[in-house]
Design goal:
Elements (H helix, E strand, L loop, with lengths): L2 E2 L1 H8 L3 H10 L4 E3 L5 E4 H13 L12 E12 L3 E8 L2 E8 H7 L6 E6 L13
Antiparallel strand pairs: 1-3, 2-3, 4-5, 4-7, 5-6
């Protein structure tokens, strides 16, 4: 099973390095020390925590059928007469959505506004990324 440094684990979980270190210190995330003295987080433990975090209710307690929700900041909105292209930066992820101009106007979407992209798809491509 692969192991991850605290910084890698933080990136994968979408939290800060300090948060991961606090979780390790409190016992919420199991980790050992590698030969260099760095935290080595077990991949299975990291996956379990990621699932726990994904199962936690969204702030505000609203229930949604869509599980893949990416909270971020609107970076660009391009409007024409009918449609709007909305770009959101959600952590390391750039999400681009095409919605009606009316919806973009009703939501007040402009650069700098916080928004949530809800992704619901029947096809999702997955690729394995080799680590250096």
């Amino acid at each position: 099973m692969p192991t991850y440094r605290a910084t890698e684990a933080a990136t994968l979980l979408g939290v800060s390095d300090d948060t991961v270190r606090r979780w390790i210190d409190s016992g919420r995330l199991a980790a050992a020390r590698d030969a260099a003295g760095h935290h080595a987080v077990d991949g299975r433990a990291l996956a379990r925590l990621a699932q726990e975090l994904g199962a936690e209710p969204a702030p505000g307690g609203h229930q949604r059928s869509t599980r893949n929700r990416l909270r971020g900041i609107v970076t660009r909105v391009v409007r024409d007469t009918v449609m709007a292209q909305v770009e959101i930066q959600a952590g390391p992820f750039r999400v681009v959505s095409l919605i009606s101009r009316e919806a973009a106007d009703d939501l007040g979407l402009e650069p700098g506004v916080v928004a949530v992209a809800s992704v619901k798809a029947t096809n999702v491509a997955v690729e394995h990324v080799e680590r250096p």
